[in-house]
From TrEMBL:
Gene3D superfamilies: P-loop containing nucleotide triphosphate hydrolases (3.40.50.300). The keyword Nucleus applies. Pfam families: AAA. Residues 24-54 are annotated as: Disordered. Residues 65-85 form the ATPase AAA-type core domain. It comes from the Eukaryota. One of its GO terms (cellular component) is nucleus. Residues 24-40 have a biased composition (Basic and acidic residues). One of its GO terms (molecular function) is ATP binding. It is found in: Nucleus. Keywords: Nucleus. It comes from Timema poppense (Walking stick). This is ATPase AAA-type core domain-containing protein.
């Protein structure tokens, strides 16, 4: 699930270049005390999107590689991304 969200977040970085639309920035929810203490923290994120843009408003990371053993959902994710991309 987190991989799908990360890839969709990366895809949305291209909206300014491809569709000439400004990127919608969501406000992060306030952290509660338990999360600040780290006692009940979730599993660490495997992938982090570098949302830095170059001088042409394009993402620094320009390529997404879907790889792994059979049965992980690579084809499903590729179909989902293609649907969102138009």
């Amino acid at each position: 699930q987190s991989t799908n969200r990360t890839l969709l977040q990366w895809l949305k970085l291209w909206d300014k270049v491809v569709f000439n639309r400004e990127r919608k920035v969501r406000q992060k929810p306030k952290e509660d005390k338990n999360k600040q203490d780290g006692r009940f923290s979730k599993k660490p994120q495997q992938f982090v999107v570098n949302d830095d843009l170059d001088e042409h408003s394009r993402p620094q990371q320009k390529l997404a590689l879907l790889c792994g053993p059979p049965g992980l959902g690579k084809t499903t994710l590729a179909h989902m991304i293609a649907t969102h991309a138009g």
